[in-house]
Amino acid sequence: MKAFIEYIGRELGLADPKTDYPNICAGTDRYAMYKVGPVLSVSHGMGIPSIAIMLHELIKLLYHARCTDVTVVRIGTSGGIGLKPGTVVITKQSVDACFQPRFEQVILGKPVVRSTELDSDLAEELLQCSKNLGDMETVIANTMCTMDFYEGQARLDGAFCSYTEEDKQNYLKEAYAAGVRNIEMESSVFAAMCKLSHLKAAVVCVTLLDRQKGDQLTSSHDVLQDYQQRPQLLVGHFIKRRLNAKNKGFSSSSSSSHGVDKAKTS
Amino acid sequence: MKAFIEYIGRELGLADPKTDYPNICAGTDRYAMYKVGPVLSVSHGMGIPSIAIMLHELIKLLYHARCTDVTVVRIGTSGGIGLKPGTVVITKQSVDACFQPRFEQVILGKPVVRSTELDSDLAEELLQCSKNLGDMETVIANTMCTMDFYEGQARLDGAFCSYTEEDKQNYLKEAYAAGVRNIEMESSVFAAMCKLSHLKAAVVCVTLLDRQKGDQLTSSHDVLQDYQQRPQLLVGHFIKRRLNAKNKGFSSSSSSSHGVDKAKTS
């Protein structure tokens, strides 16, 4: 999060080399938060429950701070299906492990189903941004959001595995047929909570491997580092373009905040 | 985690004031791990998906390290129901938001239900330990494990709330009637994965507030700090007693490892 805010600070010309960015949430170990200009960068830990806690508190914060015209982007890593590793996926729909675009929230012991629809114009704008960044393959596709990294994503290398390589491949093929091109663990509740709050939202995750070819990372440390920078570069470029447009009078909102939720991992 | 391992190091007489404990998992930001003697202390983040990732990797580690006679204890904080804040709850059964002792794991898109049974002898042994620690109220009771901290635990102070104070109180009353005395976010998958791995497991969480009286912490920082120490003190005493018994020949296992999973929060 701090690296991202330092990068954005430099890109926007707001960086002061003499000052360090403090962690605004230093009093808690739930997550870390950094800010430069109108951009917030917040960590969210791993999985739906962890990001949901952060989002409840972030949404309340944005409300009390009277932020308007807010755009929220989750950036992170993911496993790909049928894509070259390093490809960036902008999520069209976040689907569950049965490939349905829904998030089930249990309230007072009863399931409540919520839509995981994301902003299609925002996804398209991000895709356009990627075209300015040269050699960064980027697609708009469905993202599967699971509750578990090992059994939940049909990995064969967890502590338990009750299925075969063939079962795994069949499941990934079904996911591919449903338009899924990457798998991560936070997008569904992120999409659902942003939609409920009328926040424009996008999910931008790089794929670190093709899950049809394996379960573990085989790229070198340097290559993985390069992949992990890609969502940051893309969203950094997007923020810069949006703010430049605003400064030229293309937007009439009175204040603006671009929140970026950054995954530690996925 | 580090504070716990430093405490255990001192308690077991294994601490070397000249050496710092390194984070064994420093190469990842998924979690932190510290070790002293036969005791591991590992963080697990917030929520079921986060602790499940850690447990898959810990269980594989214990297997490859050929550890035997392993006991795993999750220590952390929780919200209480009908208990004086500061009470320590040793989990009898981890139940879901419908008060059922089960954990549903989705595998290849299909739900698989697993038992969340914990070791009753271990729970009883921990309760006995608490009696040696003077003024630390401790009970054995059911723990409700939820997927969400706000709506999932019937809080009224999240970003969204579609129910009334009366609905909340009725839900907490139902939970109480089902034997639930505290609520947290990791115990069900912890119990399920430990049971599948034949690891003896316990959950020891202090209650920071009585949820029937409110949703937010009202105790002072110092009082909360004191509460948060209690699971550590209890489990520290338990580990010391177990290891002393082993050294006196009460146990015949060839090697031993006491893993302690520590919540950042709950």
Biggest interface, CB < 8 A:
A-B, 49 and 49 residues
Radius of gyration of chain A: 18 Å
Strand order of the largest sheet of chain A: 3-8-7-4-9
Mean pLDDT score of chain A: 92
Unreliable residue stretches of chain A: 250-256
In the CATH hierarchy, the third-tier topology of the domain at 71-213 and 220-245 in chain A is known as Rossmann fold
What is the rounded distance between the termini of chain A? 15 Å
Task: Give the oligomer, counting copies of the same chain as homo and different chains as hetero.
Answer: homodimer
Taken from the alpha-carbon principal axes, the silhouette of chain A is globular
**CATH architecture annotation name of the domain at 71-213 and 220-245 in chain A:** 3-Layer(aba) Sandwich
In short:
With 266 residues, the first copy, chain A, is an alpha/beta fold. The first copy, chain A, has 6 helices and 10 strands, in the order αββαββββαβαβαβαβ.
List keywords for this structure.
266 residues, two-stranded antiparallel ribbon, Nucleoside_phosphorylase_sf (chains A, B), 6 helices, alpha/beta, transferase (chains A, B), EC 2.4.2.3 (chains A, B), homodimer, 10 strands, Rossmann fold
